[in-house]
Fold:
Amino acid sequence: MTCRNCHTDFNGNYCNNCGQSAKTKRFSFKYFVRESFASSLDIENGFFLSFKLLLLNPGKSIKAYIQGSRVSLYPPAKFLILSGAIATFLAIRYRFYSDSYIAGLSELSDMDPKGFLNFAEEYATLINALTIPIFAFFSYLFFKSKGYNYTENLVLNMYITVMQMMGLLFFVPFLEFFPDFKGPILIIYTLGTLLYNVWAYLDFFDARNSKGVLTIALILIASYLTQYLVNNLIFLLITQASWL
Structure:
């Protein structure tokens, strides 16, 4: 058979050139779950190579992975677990949300936002993980004509979320040396994650035209509004259950 990663002809269960499994299939939810958790949580050389590829060329790298080049990127679920742990640590360590916003929000209304923002720091990984199926749903819905199923959109948005969380690493030196500028730093980080999302979608869906840009804008608006509602619902459920 021909390897779907390096296109080498081979016999057996694994490619003798790149090591990819001969059983590589198109993503379905069942196949995705099995492949994501079949191996142990090791930090392999592929972790750092994946970070580089997703940083420099996210759309094309994710597309190649989904289309069969499975040894090119670190498995998305494992990548999410590692980046989620890092993001949660950094959010709590630098009080990335609460110190930046509590005073400003308190001036705008009588509400006390401290509880929700502390919740956002403590449950940063959960919040980011819950955004993935939301964004996957809308990218699947709006770009259904591209032929990617929901699970493939889930993989796409999982990698995007991973890199958005890992983006916090770039701001650690600024947070260390300029702690009084957390607000502006957070704004820059937020804009950076938004632009990264747009860039990845443009390349992945080959949407470099006015219609594609408009479609991506609709996806982001719908996704962020839904995410906002879901986050607040979870916060209310957790706070209501805290007294039990």
User: Anything to note?
Assistant: The first helix runs from residue 29 to 36. The chain has one domain: 29-241.
